[in-house]
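We treat protein structure as text, and this decision shapes the records that our systems exchange. We quote a single record here, exactly as it is kept in our systems:
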Amino acid sequence: MANIDFVLAKKEGETLLSHTENALKVFKDIKDIYGDVENIINDNLFFEKIFIALFMHDLGKISKGFQDSMITGKKWGYRHEILSASLCGLIDKDNEYIFDVVMGIITHHKDCNELREKYNTKDEVAKEIFDEQVDVFLKDEAKIIEFLKRVESLSEGYLGYRLKILEDSLSKDKLIDGYKKCVYKYLKLKDNLDEIDKIKYIFLKGFVTAADHLASANIYKISKISVDIDKVLGFKTYRTTQEVAKKIRGDVFLVAPTGSGKTEASLLWSFNQGRSNKRLYYVLPYTASINAMYKRFAGYFGEDNVGVLHNKAAYFLNKYLSEKDDELSYKEIKSIHDLSKKIYRPIKILTPHQIIKNFFAIKGFEQRISEMQGGLFILDEIHSYDARLTALLLCTCKFLKKIGANFFIMSATLPKFIMDMFKDELQIKNIITMPQNELKEFTRHRVVVKEGSVYDYIEEIVEKVLSGKKTLVILNTVSEAQNVYKILAERLKDTSIKYMLLHSRFILKDREAKEKDIDNYDLLVATQVVEVSLDIDYDTLYTQPAPCDALIQRFGRVNRKRRKGICDVNVFSNGGEKDKFVYKNQEYVFKTLEYLREVDILEEDIVQNIVDKVYQNGYSQKDRELYDKVKGSFEYIMNSLTPMIEDEMLEEEFDKMFDSFQAVPLKFKMDYMTSIDNGEYFDAIGYCVQITTGQFFRFKKENKIEYDKKYHMYFVNCEYNSELGLLDEEKEDNFM
């Protein structure tokens, strides 16, 4: 009997037996959590195939070439998964079964395109190399046989019944060329795969790689939540909307005022959707609100159960975790962040981009889509998405619905035409609204339309602040916010008043510091970054005009907790010159002002009526054309998406679609490079600032931006300071 106890799978010394069993431990949880998959793809042997693929996925590592590389550290030069797949010829099953197992094994590291490029055994040289590697592999026949015999006990423990692979002996003529028999065939058939087949192969690769990656990260269980949600929330009584949400099964719309407990309602809904181990995705539009929600959910469910995903998540987690434990190393924090990208944490708080991008064939998309099977998606404040993002999100939701997802869509200001789009496409029947008597309790604002612009009311704003009123001033563009802030700061500089400017054009270090203390200022001048889900509570508001749904969100930052009686929210009739770049359909703005002029006390039960009147014709013609164009293009991309095949060109298309680049102000170039050189990557990210695509190309034209190949970063030559942010006086503006 050959001894396989010392056959290595990892450089760190982990044995093949140990790694295989650890991957199967993860498999057992996957099978438990995603048990509906077999019904979706009509394959009651699917998890058996996954088990076999995982049991055999690293068997090729028995080869002397691989084992020598573990000892010497020198590259082997061949792929273990190709040798592993060759052993599938021993499986006594039909061709479809063997095909699926081979594809699960042979693609768990490399996609089909790379296999075709480097290991295409239709090529005589590659075929000769394959045959030579098989001959070397079979010199360890005794070890291979001994390992294959373990399938009986392992299948009983992790699958629930006994399987057998090796009927008698092992011989070369029983082995198969996995590329020629399966990958080559798959590449020829890929354009003719039906939707169910595509979904099957997404799950196949997704679950195999998920189990392998978690086991390699020394994680052998998938986290699950088992809590009493009533005790977690700690409410003595629930609002009517929350009571209804707590009892509904299936998809839901919730329209209710800011501060009315929509988040809690969505959580009550999620814990009533059947199996307790469903995965929860809380989707928000802005990173600041995501970070705040992460802290809130971590308090509810524990940090290990909650992940955060957005383009600045690594920086946020580093700050958050370092403050709690300053002895955590970069490696430990990176591991915590990386787990959020894997099938591990049951709750993820993220932007819609983090979901949508998986349908652009980005590396690892199968694993991330597989994780979303049967997921519960809470879509918060969807009114804030433009026509492009709404089209992308709706197409994505339609696909997720096919793989068992459910949706809880909520907003304080949801235009009826947006609701109808989601309702029709996703077939949502449940709509929760707040009863009129409860809505009355949320009346807290007096609307004052002030004729003129913000510059006509500077003295009034100063007087309001000096009188002790916590005052919020919201502008539509960064440049306008900077200008108004400078004027107000000059007027208040010799007083004890605390004032601050907030917008998107600060480096991460400065923005994080500002948001941390955001509610403790006498005067806050800001852009739309404060509109959604930031827990701030000011006494009065002065704002440039905007469409009604945006204004209602701004109003929600005043008297949020309804403890101050009726507070004034002042809307200027005139905006800025650059507002047309922000709100491209100014008709919405004009209509909003028209209806608000008729309002004194903004009764909460008339808010939805105003929103519906403003948007009674739906999108403008231009926005409708954009929506239809993006929807059609994305549907084509989704229909073309083929599992086990990545597409770098599509990834570039995704990056181009969203209006921002990451750069470092030139004054921080040395700080950034020093941080990178010292391995202080989280610190380096803190020097980054977002700029729009328009700014990016203008800066290039003006020779104000340079790219450093060594550090893979753009450096922008614009003035910057921590009080005002990045200064750019040009016409086209980054409006957030």
About this structure: The chain has a mean pLDDT of 92. The radius of gyration is 29 Å. Residues 463 and 532 are 28 Å apart (CA to CA). The longest strand covers residues 406-411.
